Amino acid sequence: MKKILVLAVTVGLIAVLSLGSVAQAQDLIPVRLQLQWVTQSQFAGYYAAVDQGFYEAEGLDVTILEGAVDIVPQQVVASGGAEFGIAWVPKVLESREAGADLVNIAQVFQRSGTLQVSFKETGIESVEDFRGMNIGTWGFGNEHELFAAMRAAGIDPANAEDVTIIQQPFDMSLLFNGEVDAAQAMTYNEYAQVLEAVDDQGNFLYTADDLNVINYNDVGTAMLQDHIFSSEAYLAGETNGVSNEDIAVRFIKASLMGWIYARDNFEEAVQIVLDNGPTLGTGHMTWQLNEINKLIWPSPMGVGMLDEALWAQTVAVSLEGAVITAEPSEGAFRTDLAAAAIELLTAEGVDVTGESYEPIEVEITPRGE
Fold it and tell me: According to the model, what pLDDT value does residue 317 have?
């Protein structure tokens, strides 16, 4: 299998290729994708697209750039450090309002993966129960769903008399030691960390029956998350005589093929992620991909297509929470590129909706090993 290198690639020359064509002897067009975090199953589709040659078949040589705490994908793409990026929609909206010409070109995640997790003994069963509690959040733009939900319940997150907001690390340590009553978690990451926790003898400490879980999709403040974005300036240009819009369609098509592969070849996709060196173990990566697939499938309009009702909800929550001060400017999203990619995939007989998708049962492993 091909190991993905986080390196710059040599720019090749390529003759103009028609959409969906297979690269021949010409050099591939180099493209960089900036992730919003480190290698893990959250990005399995992109790693699979490289490993399975989907990008290469579209005439692209894709370099995947890992994220980190100090890397902001919006800044990387806006400054020309990558052609495409992955981020949550409200973060890109915030950057766009600040002057970056970023545009959503493919909405991969169809639903939010954000939770608030507490032990049942706290009695927290709804957002209203947050009043007077210590509530954890990572911040860094991840708090918007939580804060909007509290405000809707009449709780002011800025008022210490209503609730105490605690900055939590990207783990569940503060929940375990009682410093927070409810911790922020993603379905595919921190929630699993609770279930994977064991004692010194390797016995599991908790089960799902010990927990209360609030899902922001149910609360009504869920915001669109992982999507592919680019810059208007890049999309308006060309590379080696090829329209960058043409390149974007090819990139989206191959990326969606990667996610379809991860849906239909689950174990192989997990192995591809493992081959690229995630910091967490096999069990955790297996749980994570299963949960990620749930956020993508089914995609009734076709994977990568934007649900404009959920876009409007995301904008409304962003405005209510002062993430942005005005409606996004025209051009904040476009669906034509993803639609073109989906049309090509459909013509090839590919299932782009996953209507019959069913998640698998994943066995929890100690510490996610």
Answer: 94
Place of tokens 């309009």: 301
Q: What is the DSSP string of 126-152?
A: SGGGGTTSEEEE--TT--HHHHHHHHH
Helix (H) or strand (E) segment spanning residue 63 = strand 60-65
* Tokens at 129, concatenated: 């129960």
Strand ranges across the sheet with 84-87: 60-65, 29-34, 84-87, 227-231, 102-106
For residues 334 and 262, the answer to whether their CB atoms sit within 8 Å is no
Please confirm whether the linkage preceding 366 is cis (ω < 30° from 0).
no
Task: Tell me the C-alpha distance between 353 and 298, whole Å.
Answer: 6
Tell whether the torsion through CA atoms of 244, 249, 254 and 259 is positive or negative: positive
- The first and second tokens of residue 4, run together, are 């993905």
Q: Cβ of 326: how many Cβ atoms within 10 Å?
A: 8
Closest CA to 269 of 42, 5, 36: 42
* Residue 50 zone, left/alpha/beta (φ > 0; ψ -120 to 50; rest): alpha
Tokens describing residue 340: 């073109």
CA–CA distance, 66 with 42 (Å, rounded to integer): 12
pLDDT value for 81: 98
Token pair of 28 as six digits: 């591939």
Give dist(CA 2, CA 78) in Å, integer. 29
- DSSP for 147-199? HHHHHHTT--TT-TTT-EEEE--SSSHHHHTTS-SEEEEETTTHHHHHHH-B-
Q: Which of 141, 163, 135, 157 is nearest to 94 (CA)?
A: 141
Nearest alpha carbon to residue 303 among 248, 341, 359, 331:
341
Residue 304 near residue 108 (C-beta atoms within 8 A): yes
pLDDT at residue 294 in the model: 98
Instruction: Give all strands of the β-sheet with 134-137 in edge-to-edge order.
Output: 164-167, 134-137, 182-186, 114-119, 211-215
Question: What is residue 141's predicted lDDT score, i.e. its pLDDT?
Answer: 85
Low-confidence ranges of the chain (pLDDT < 70): 1-26
pLDDT at 21: 43
Task: Please answer whether residues 78 and 101 qualify as being in contact, where contact means their C-beta atoms are separated by less than 8 angstroms.
Answer: yes
Residues 51-79: tens digit of each pLDDT: 999 999 999 999 999 999 899 999 999 99
